[in-house]
Amino acid sequence: MNSNILTLLNAEGLDIDLKNIAQKIVNNIRISDDEAILLYEKGELGFLGVLANFIREQKHGNKTYFNKNFHIEPTNICIYNCKFCSYVRKIGQEGAWEFTIDEILKTVESYKNTGVTEVHIVGGVHPKRDLHYYGEMMQKIKEIIPNIHIKAFTAVELEYMIKKAKLSLEDGLLKLKEYGLDSIPGGGAEIFHSDIRKEICDEKASTDMWLTIHETAHKVGIPSNATILYGHVEKYEHRVHHMSKLRELQDKTGGFNTYIPLKFRKENNSMSHIGEVTSIEDLKNFAVSRIYLDNFPHLKAYWPSIGKEIAQLSLSFGVDDIDGTIDDSTKIYSMAGAEDQNPKMTTNDLVKLVKDVKRIPIERDTLYNVINTF
Ligand code: V47
Ligand code: SF4
User: Fold this and answer.
1) Where are the domains of the chain?
2) Residue 354 pLDDT > 90, yes or no?
3) Other C-beta atoms within 10 Å of 59: how many?
4) pLDDT at 2 over 80
5) Which of 61, 57, 69 is nearest to 365 (CA)?
6) Is any ligand 1 atom within 6 A of the Cβ of residue 187?
7) Residue 66: is its pLDDT beyond 70?
């Protein structure tokens, strides 16, 4: 057994409740919601790190996954007005963009023969675009790069396009799968608790809808990810409630690959006055997520949202995946004030980042099949 955890269990003066939780983790016993709240409230960073790292190493040893990917954000025009969104624009408003299919395909062409294995496609919910428009876009993308994995559309975008096509969720998802959709990213989850959801993104897909779309996707063989938007008005109990919904669904379907905590970034949105949480809080949150979500295979630090150094540190707080090369192809975080205004890493940069903290870099595909070990 990992000597750090033994030292921890025998430490004098350790709070008895925390000690009981540590004992549970050593014995592979699931922790309760109340225990997760207690970890957030009482667990100091070093303690949480030892527990989360114990689980991370049990699941993945020193392996740290990344992939070669790029994003397409077809439009930032959106019918909704989430308060935290720095990116949304209305038709005709300054700063709005909507790429044509030809423009999108030109971008895809530029990635031909570069070794990318995934394209991540998300954007605003455009009132004039529909399921067949995006379906044909996916078909054409695969004509250019046949083996590329298309991870596309948040549950929020999916709800709108499937409803507009007058299809049931199951038929809509099957139709999109036929067009080339391979998996669904984790966005749009934000905070599931109704008190907070009402306050920050009242209009878009409800919690039940988000969960039902992912459940249906899993049922028809489309895997997905899950996110949380943390570090704004929510309390620890809301984060735990959010994770409890995900843990419950994962018990049922097993269709989630990875959990991605997304730190609220404050620039250029209507929640700027709230400010941002500290990096310590980011690491704590990764650790508690890893401890609580025992049935999620992977925990991802999305480096464009927190920066490269915190992503690197997070590898000792439960994280085993740092997403991808990105290639400066997403605007969500640069517009919200992230340090990296042009997020981009080469394979060598990612490998160095992982090796510098003595982990083993593994290039994966979207479904965590190993492509290269470094
Ligand atoms: O749902 C929007 C978030 C998400 C802000 O599945 C913000 O692999 C912080 O879901 N501050 C979209 N976050 C991005 C997303 C994602 C990213 C990387 C990987 C995967 C995956 C999914 O971005 C939205 C929302 O939660 N977001 N504005 C902001 N100001
Ligand atoms: Fe639209 Fe997504 Fe921004 Fe909400 S977060 S306003 S759904 S683009």
Assistant:
1) 60-373
2) yes
3) 16
4) no
5) 69
6) yes
7) yes
Q: Which amino acid is at 213?
A: I
Q: Where does 60-373 sit in CATH, by number?
A: 3.20.20.70
Show contacts of 174-179: CB within 8 Å, 24+ apart.
Answer: 174/220, 175/131, 175/135, 176/131, 176/134, 176/135, 176/138, 177/220, 177/221, 177/222, 178/135, 179/134, 179/135, 179/136, 179/138, 179/139
The CA 152 to ligand 2 mean position distance, Å, reads 15
**Mean pLDDT across the stretch 206-229?**
98
22 lines ligand 1 (CB under 6 A): no
CB 118 within 8 A of CB 147: no
Distance 95 CA to ligand 2 centre (A): 15
Alpha carbon distance 221, 15 (integer Å): 44
Beta-carbon count within 10 A of 178 CB? 11
Residue from 262, 298, 325, 340 whose mutation best tests the ligand 1 pocket (most atoms within 8 A of CB) = 262
End-to-end CA distance of the chain: 27
333 alpha carbon – ligand 1 mean position (Å): 8
